[in-house]
């Protein structure tokens, strides 16, 4: 697992560490890591000696990091220019060292550079870019040189990943100590480019703002059958999805569930004939009440919202079993008719809204703090919330949050959420905790989208097929 921490927690950890070290040690470590990464980029584009670097230097320590790194590069024969957002407020020690190493301060940007270093704003940023920093970010958007951001791209809201205004788009972000939320979540995350972490030796005691699963986590959580297993002991997932109008949703959620770890998939709904024909291993029934025993339910995709659908949702809500509620199930929850049934549940519930469904459930769209919004809805509904998006978020009612690092735009295709729901239900039925089931399903769904995209354009059926190739063996 990786994790990102909020600014206040990063500052507290830095303060505690700084108290044990000679002054300037942390900035020296940060600048050394930054200079190393700049040198790698410059070498990959030709040569280090004689190449040209432009530093954009702000008024705080982020600018200090850039100036010390610039000094190191100047000592290696790089022609380094520093453009200062405010010449009177540049980092004093950094500027002296930079000038002594042969760096130049410029008031006009050189016409040709091999690399731009964005040292305007780091974790001290407040609100949208202002003044000279805003002008520089706007101008930078029109240049073609690669950009390395120092700690975070300037202009992002570091704690939420929101973009309060224009921001720098980096090819690489060299970040210090730990990840910050803006590097992994929200509209800011894609602006960071490739994120490289420079170890400062920080010890984090605060809880992370958000966690990120890695392949090793998914492999550890994924249940494997052994010699004692049978189809029931591996878990049975039930699907109350699809309808006469939307048989595709039934097929796609079934395909998602079949890629999961359970020993059996049961389908209950009006698309039962086509499911039985196309997925012969699935045991089908027309209604939830006829389905037989399962260990978790998936309800909603393509179910429609008629009287029959309401009865099916009611049956799922009443079952003392983990349940995934998606799409039409969420729509039916919104009018409040089922609010008491949802609240009365003692078994775990996972809600999987996209932004539109989130807005209908919560009363307002996720807003600038997507993780915070998902946590609020999770606490309010006492459910795990999987908020879909390019960086899908999983939030639990007890305040834990995760963001999925594997998403890819090719997942944005009709029916892709149905596949996700089926897999999630299978993981729940196989005994994963609701948070782990949601995190693992989003992670593998993303990998499957990437794998499917390798052979061309992607349909949700392709995502389901590719799931089989990306699940742990
Ligand atoms: N702490 C440590 O141990 C270590 C920290 N390290 C480094 O320090 C960085 C944090 O440095 P920091 O605290 O000096 O803040 P920083 O991000 O440079 O910006 C503050 C300045 O920006 C300005 N400003 C703010 N918002 C603005 C806006 N919207 N638009 C325009 N201007 C704006 C604000 O000006 P003001 O609002 O006061 O006019 C203030 O002067 C951190 O990210 C990392 O790189 C590393 O060396 C490792 C060790
Ligand atoms: N731009 C994007 N990048 C990555 N993933 C995306 C993007 N847009 C949507 N997704 C993912 O695609 C899936 C869409 O699901 P959903 O909105 O339920 O669609 P449908 O109802 O058609 O199945 C979700 O897993 C979501 O996270
Ligand atoms: K920066």
Which fold does the CATH topology of the largest domain refer to?
UDP-N-acetylmuramoyl-L-alanine:D-glutamate ligase
Number of alpha- plus pi-helical segments: 16
Which cofactors or ions or other ligands sit in this model?
ligand NPW, adenosine-5'-diphosphate, potassium ion
Give the integer mean of the pLDDT values. 97
The low-pLDDT segments are none
Beta percentage is 15-25%
Instruction: State the CATH class of the largest domain.
Output: Alpha Beta
Number of strand segments: 18
What is the structural class?
alpha/beta
The strand order across the widest sheet is: 12-11-10-13-14-15-16-17-18
Total domain units: 2
Protein name: Bifunctional NAD(P)H-hydrate repair enzyme
Domain YjeF N-terminal: 10-208
Binding site for AMP: 388-392, 417
Organism: Hamadaea flava
Structure description:
By secondary structure, this protein is α/β, with parallel strands linked by helices. The protein has two domains: 2-209, Rossmann fold (3-Layer(aba) Sandwich); 215-470, Ribokinase (UDP-N-acetylmuramoyl-L-alanine:D-glutamate ligase, 3-Layer(aba) Sandwich). Helix content is 39%, strand content 15%. The protein is built from 16 helices and 18 strands. The chain has a nine-stranded mixed sheet, sandwiched between helices. A seven-stranded parallel sheet has the order 4-3-2-5-6-7-8, covered by helices on one side. Strand 16 and strand 17 (393-395) form a beta hairpin. The protein binds ligand NPW, adenosine-5'-diphosphate and potassium ion. It holds the Pfam family Carb_kinase. Its EC number is 4.2.1.136, 5.1.99.6. Its cofactor is Mg(2+); K(+).
């Amino acid at each position: 697992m990786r994790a990102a921490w909020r600014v206040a927690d990063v500052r507290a950890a830095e303060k505690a560490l700084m108290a044990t070290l000679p002054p300037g040690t942390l900035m020296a470590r940060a600048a050394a890591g930054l200079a190393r990464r700049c040198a790698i980029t410059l070498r990959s584009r030709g040569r280090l000696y004689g190449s040209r670097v432009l530093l954009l230097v702000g008024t705080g320590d982020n600018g200090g990091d850039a100036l010390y790194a610039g000094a190191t590069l100047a000592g290696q024969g790089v022609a380094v220019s520093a453009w200062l957002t405010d010449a009177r407020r540049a980092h004093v020690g950094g500027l002296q060292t930079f000038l002594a190493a042969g760096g130049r301060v410029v008031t006009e940007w050189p016409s040709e550079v091999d690399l731009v270093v964005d040292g305007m704003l780091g974790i001290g940023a407040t609100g949208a870019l202002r003044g000279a920093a805003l002008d520089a970010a706007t101008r930078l958007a029109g240049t073609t040189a690669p950009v390395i951001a120092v700690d975070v791209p300037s202009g992002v809201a570091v704690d939420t990943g929101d973009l309060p205004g224009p921001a720098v788009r980096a090819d690489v972000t060299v970040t210090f100590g730990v990840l910050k939320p803006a590097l992994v979540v929200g509209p800011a995350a894609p602006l960071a480019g490739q994120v490289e972490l420079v170890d400062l030796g920080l010890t984090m005691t605060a809880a992370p703002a958000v966690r990120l699963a890695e392949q090793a986590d998914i492999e550890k959580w994924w249940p494997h059958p052994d010699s004692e297993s049978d189809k029931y002991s591996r878990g049975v997932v039930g699907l109350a999805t699809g309808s006469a109008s939307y048989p595709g949703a039934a097929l796609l959620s079934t395909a998602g569930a079949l890629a999961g770890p359970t020993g059996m998939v049961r389908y209950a709904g009006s698309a039962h004939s086509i499911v039985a024909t196309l997925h012969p291993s699935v045991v089908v029934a027309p209604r939830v009440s006829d389905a037989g025993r399962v260990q978790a339910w998936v309800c909603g995709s393509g179910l429609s919202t008629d009287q029959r659908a309401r009865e099916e949702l009611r049956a799922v809500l009443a079952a003392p079993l983990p349940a995934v509620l998606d799409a039409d199930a969420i729509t039916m929850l919104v009018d409040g008719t089922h609010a008491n049934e949802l609240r009365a549940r003692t078994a775990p519930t996972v809600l999987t809204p996209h932004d539109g469904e989130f807005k209908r459930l919560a009363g307002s769209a996720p807003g600038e703090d997507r993780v915070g919004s998902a946590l609020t809805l999770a606490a309010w509904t006492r459910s795990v919330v999987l908020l879909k998006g390019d960086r899908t978020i999983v939030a639990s009612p007890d305040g834990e949050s995760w963001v999925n690092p594997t998403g890819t735009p090719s997942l944005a295709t009709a029916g892709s959420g149905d596949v996700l729901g089926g897999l999630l239900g299978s993981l729940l039925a196989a005994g994963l905790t609701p948070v782990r089931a949601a995190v693992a399903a989003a992670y593998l769904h993303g990998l499957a989208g990437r794998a499917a995209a390798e052979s061309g354009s992607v349909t949700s059926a392709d995502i389901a097929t590719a799931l089989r190739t990306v699940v742990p063996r």
